Amino acid sequence: MKSINVRVKRYDPETKESRYQNYAVEVGDHEAVLDALIQIREYIDETLAVRCSCRSAICGSCAVRVNGHAMLACKTKLTEVMSDGETVTVEPLGNMEPIKDLVADMSTFWAKIKQVQPWLKPHMPSPDKEYIAPREAMSDLANTMNCIMCGCCVSDCTVLAVDKNFIAPAALAKAYRFVADPRETEDAKDERLKELSKYGGVWDCTHCFECVQVCPKGVAPMDRIVDIRRTAMEAGFRDNNGTRHSNSFANSVKKSGWLDEIRLLPESLGLDDGEAQVKFIPTALRAIVKRKMPPIIHHKRPGADNVKRIFEEMEKE
């Protein structure tokens, strides 16, 4: 047994105030963060609010932030997160309002899930017998269906933190589960892809990998977001800033071996959209003042032909 300091973020719903409180806890090497929290609640401070249920990393209800990253408290060993003089900091999930102490209001999470309409849209008469999807099609979806709705990815999403319109990783991963389902009709699939390609959808993800890092079940939401992007582009949904940005980036690197930043923004916005271009003039002026303006004349990098050859080989595939 060893003594550790658990620093818990408390929230009082009556005063709307937050504060940190330290608890000294005796724990064994095998114990999880949830064990320490339950010990605090049962033997030290019965006013501490903690949400938990299965204690088997299945229900997802014990998700909290530990040392700044979302985790399942029941799955996270204390020995893995001890730092800073044996202090472990535990906070409620981010991007959601706290209800009390470590219990977060999941309304934001569920609203995002509902936004993608998480159900099949077969648009066909009821079949005479069970429709059995091909094994190879469903094996691709198995990883996505491992999601236990814990909210860890939503908690740590850096885009949602600055833009509440973003649908968020969990919902977009759930959307892929239906986009890639062979039982979904093409009309319904196109309808989904069209909506997901709009503002707040798949193109707003910044590839920070935080959702991949914190997902306790290996769903890798960002990878599913990239899959939807690829599927949407193949289906012809290319009239959006995200697709134009992707194409401009790739074409620039293919041609010169590195990114032409001068062309990236105007090509992403659409060269025929003068109004959108004008809005970014102040940003360009600030970049010039801060000496952050990329070179006007874009030269090829040494070895650019090799980069081009890689692109051409990949395009053949």
Describe this structure in words.
The chain is of the alpha+beta class and 317 residues long. The chain has three domains: 2-104, Ubiquitin-like (UB roll) (Roll), CATH 3.10.20.30; 107-234, Fumarate Reductase Iron-sulfur Protein, Chain B, domain 2 (Orthogonal Bundle), CATH 1.10.1060.10; 241-316, no CATH class. The protein is built from 14 helices and seven strands. The strands form two sheets. It has a five-stranded mixed β-sheet. The chain has a two-stranded antiparallel ribbon with strand order 6-7. A hairpin with a 2-residue loop joins strand 3 (63-66) and strand 4 (69-72). Helix 3 (107-115) packs parallel to helix 6 (169-179), helix 6 packs antiparallel against helix 7 and helix 10 (241-256) runs antiparallel to helix 11. The mean pLDDT is 92.
